[in-house]
Amino acid sequence: MMASFIAFLFNMITTFVGCLLILRAYVFYQRLSIFDPIARLAWFGTNWLVVPVSRLVKPGRRWEWASVLSAFIMAAVVAVVTRQVTGLPVGWLGVPICAFFLLLRWILELVLWGTIIYVVLSWLQPASPAYGMVWRLMNPILGPISSRLPRLAGIDWSPLIIFLIVNALLYWVTPLSQGYFVSAWL
């Protein structure tokens, strides 16, 4: 009972930090102001890991590669710990593959939660500053679909399409991120 609680807690903390690292890289890509609350959360919540890594990897023009590398390192640590706890072998090729799929899972979960927050804010407070920040983050994802879909009854259906696509992808990515199919191959 206690071991499953500790595993749950470890998973929650590492998922939160991994998503913050990905969000930080995306905020840098989107060129959001550091004074936006979402950007501040991503920035100051991950400085403890990104600053040491940034001494090795310099940021590019569009991407902060230290955040991306830090997220991959976090995913690799989670993959090793998860494989050790579940009794799966830790292979030199299996860990990076699991880490890649875990990183992909975190990205998909961020898109899913961003879409949900976007929809709720668009219904409740479309004039709020928080909606503007979420819109800037989600518009590159929702915009291309929204421009191609007709509006039925004045409703934008692109969040529903993204929600269905992301859930379908999570159905396949989640087992790979946990190392179930990778252990059979490696």
From TrEMBL:
Where is the chain membrane-spanning? 6-29, 63-81, 113-134, 155-173
Is Transport there in the keyword field? no
For this UniProt record, the keywords arranged alphabetically read as follows: Membrane, Transmembrane, Transmembrane helix
Q: Which Pfam families match?
A: CCB3_YggT (PF02325)
Gene Ontology cellular-component terms listed: membrane
Q: Which domain of life is it from?
A: Bacteria
Q: Which InterPro entries match?
A: CCB3/YggT
Name of the protein described by the UniProt record: YggT family protein
* Annotated source species: Candidatus Aphodousia faecigallinarum
